[in-house]
Amino acid sequence: MKIGNFDLSGDKTFIIAELSGNHHGNLQTALDTIQAAKEIGADAIKLQTYTADTITLDCDKEEFVIKGGTLWDHTTLYDLYKKAYTPWEWHEELFNYARKIGIDIFSSPFDKSAVDFLEQFNPSAYKIASFEITDYELVRYTASKGRPMIISTGIATIDEIQDAVDICRSEGNNDIVLLKCTSAYPAPLEEANLKTIPNLAETFGVIAGFSDHTLGITAPIAAVTLGAKVIEKHFILDKSIGGPDADFSLDKEEFAQMVQAVRDTEKLLGRVDYSMTEKKKKSRQFARSLYIAEDIRQGEIFTEKNIRSVRPGYGLHPKYFKEIIGKKAKRDLTKGTALKWRDVQ
Length: 345
Fold this sequence. Notes:
Elements: E1 2-3, E2 6-7, E3 14-18, H1 27-39, E4 44-49, H2 52-55, H3 77-84, H4 91-101, E5 104-109, H5 112-119, E6 126-128, H6 136-143, E7 149-152, H7 158-170, E8 176-181, H8 196-204, E9 207-212, H9 218-225, E10 230-234, H10 252-269, H11 278-283, E11 289-292, E12 307-310, H12 321-324
Parallel strand pairs: 3-4, 3-10, 4-5, 6-7, 7-8, 8-9, 9-10
Antiparallel strand pairs: 1-2, 11-12
């Protein structure tokens, strides 16, 4: 499966820098953020495509007011999204700029009109946000466009995840990535439950990844060790910019550290390998082997006293120790001689 030119079947992890509302309403900041994402090694920048009117109602009834200990308590949903959205008139310039500098770009649509709007830019994928996974008609319509589907599972039950996967497949779309996600901002480490990542891949027969809202870079690194092929993390040029997502976003230095740590982790994971490489062969000089521990005359019997398993590794393998005990020496042998079969009578 490919997203743009990135092959998810390879050894590398697809790293997505989430712009979200971290442009703070300034187009140049959005462009600078895309440039920075490219510089620090992200594989893609992801937008969010909605307006306050496409995602909620302009209503101040109690159920439309955010509460529950979030960063946005006492704000209405409408006011939050009005502040955080990425103006649709920016999209063409953002897509063109990202492609000009060589970083992939796509978006999360939040209703059918956003999908229709985004289609003109030929995005490499679509991302369904955690809170939209239960909007089955949105999932269906987006999947019908035939582009890879990246779906966050943050608030979904296992049955709803299965429904979303089945809907995509019913539209003939089998390019599905499910992201483990904890929909808390920021997300406590103890609620990350990263062991779910390989289970997502196994249970649903898809590629699995991680959409991270924890603080710091530990969780993405751990996710990669568990098989995450996609990492998504909120990215901000500078936290002093402020904005709705600033508190749980990584700045340029932090994101660069995360990218490097993920790339180092990929190298550490490597592949299943029992082969005897040249480096391994060279290192075996420091392994144990059988050596003469005391001078031995021709015809003298080998004992546990006059031969020993010691470093370095130029003598016979230690597994032959018991076999050689009781046999006789073919020639005079001095202490420190690597024992060979030619020395055994």
